[in-house]
Amino acid sequence: MRPGRGETWLSIGDLTFHLVSDDRRLASPPPGPIQAFLTTPRAADVDMQAAWTDALVEPEGRLLFESGGAWRLVRDREDFVFSCRSSLGGPDPYLTARFDATFSHGHLLVDRRRFAGESSESVYPLGYPLDELLMVHLLSQGRGIEVHGCGVLDARGRALVFAGQSGAGKSTIARLWAARAGVTVLSDERLVLRTDADRLMAYGTPWHGDALLASPGCGELAGLFFLHHAAEHAAARTGGSRAVAQLMSCLFLAFYDREATARTLAAADRVVSATACFDLLFAPDPSVIDMIEAVMA
Q: Rounded to two decimals, what is the model's pTM?
């Protein structure tokens, strides 16, 4: 290994990310939950090279999406090119990421000028928003979905998912489950559901919410609950188009790509069709976990 060179393999949602750079700062994940997702060298689903540049410019190409803030996406011939910005750094991008059409190879450029005074040992380019964008595109190729949700492995090893948008109670449910013996909280914010095999599998991610809970564990999906605040607990079976619509409202979508969105919708439909789905009305009280366990029994 050349002096200063860095190399990292990550496994999230049973997808392997390989990042390499001549400057180890660009290939070293920061301290925190992501460290639990480091893995040994292996064949990667996406290989990426990261490098510094002193003259980062806005990529040219056909505009596919403008977020109005953190990121922008253009199509340059066959490549997808993201540019990422920060509200603290003005209108120019601090990072560009160019991927081939299959998202199997990427080239990341980081503006050296923006990090000249950074004392940290890590200037990690795979943080938000690029981590989320990359995962969404990889899953939307027919692999599965990324869900706004809390996920747990119960004492029997079954994966239960509690889907909801911001404020729905994901972190509250995660804390209540975390107090139970034999339970692993996969995440209190974002989960990966893989739908490209015979069994539907739920995976934890390093992208946690307010409860700061994350795990690289996984399990076969056994139940899907849509969160609703209420004064008293209740669980009502749901399914069909209503459940698909609720699940779609909690997904990360490549909505500017018609084919990718269609594949995501098909994956959501398979999840709902193959899983026991419930509307969960709950108050922030530990007794809701007893009710959920009774429902699953």
A: 0.94
